[in-house]
Amino acid sequence: MPEQNDTRDTGLAAQYEAYPYPERTPADEHKRLLIGSPSHLREIDYWVFGANRPTSTPLQALVAGCGTGDGAIMLATHLARAERPGQVVCVDRSHAALEIARNRAQARKLENIRFVQGDLTELPALGLGTFDYIDCCGVLHHLPNPDAVLALLAAQLNPGGGMGLMVYAPYGRTGVYMLQDALETLAPITQPPQERLDTARRIIRTLPATAWLHQNGNFGDHLSGGDAGLYDLLLNPRDQAYTITDFLAFLDRAGLEPAALMEPARYNPALFLPDPKLRQRLATLPWQQQAAIAEDLCGNMATHVAYVVRKGQAVTRPDPLNPDSVPIMREIPGAELAKQMRPDNTLPFAFGTLVVPIALPSQARGILPLIDGVRTVGEIEAILSTRGVNAQKFKQVWAESFHSLEQLNRVLLRPPA
């Protein structure tokens, strides 16, 4: 490994011991559970396993580079609350970060989670076995050889398993890399982390109004995330961003393919281009090119989140029109989502800092409150029939509603018990 990489890796290790990221306080676990993607259990059930894997089957999960534990705590809590069997194994080389994650788990009295201090580049030597699901969120883009580590992770997957990944994207991080370049000189990575942070804070206090970072609203969590947030944003010794085209090529080299990009609708440029001629042209393009156009047009994608599986192993999801299918809200109750619909029957949806109106059938207002994760599609149809919606109309309305809300990652299907 080149000396520069050794120096950067030493700086990276020092960063996460001095400023474990993200900055978390275990006492806060009594007040809230942080929710996000990837590694939301309902997302894993649907996007990775296609709502086909019984919930009674134990889930063996690895969080590769768990940091202070957001994804691991969320997944372990979801499993515990649902009384589902399985275990979440958390690996990180930072002792300080693991201690915070461990204390968070203890605050929640989680017994389905364990912690292993280790380096992902030496994953096979840790002897952890194989997994049904692997989370690697916000890690690969900091490594000297992301391809090698992703290949190691793919080798730890059980047949039919999948991963949840997050990497940085360049356009939504406009302004960050300019400041990182300046700080390479003003706060070299050979300095102690505390000195580097002091320099960064001095720059932020007097940053010119014309700096691109001032125009970018994607970094509230970093800029308000204490010392750890600011350090990770501006001083991380290695920070590689991927366009969606780069990311798909990265997956391909590891023998992987996306089961879903999050949220799928975010990568549909037709949502941002209402012009019929443009939509007609878009429809002729492969989905990969459409995703790249969406990224180019929006300009605010700061990350790419994806659920991925081995090439050729994407599962077939159940038919949402099957009367026995059970729709389930990903997080927001259906009644609350229905209240967010505007009088023109659009649902304003935020893709980061961009809010887009999503058209829904007017009948979606009545369907959403009926989605409770227990009622089947057939039972919802029966209720709608008492309100004057015949079977043919219901199928049309439900197909349109489910497709739109699934692509927003808001309504999914429940797996069997």
Automatic annotation (TrEMBL):
Q: Name one Pfam family in it.
A: Methyltransf_25
Q: Provide the species name.
A: Acetobacter vaccinii
| GO MF assignments | methyltransferase activity
Q: Name one GO biological process term.
A: methylation
> What is this protein's record name?
Class I SAM-dependent methyltransferase
* Alphabetical UniProt keywords: Methyltransferase, Transferase
Q: Which residues form the signal peptide?
A: none
Highest taxon of source: Bacteria
Domain Methyltransferase intervals: 62-161
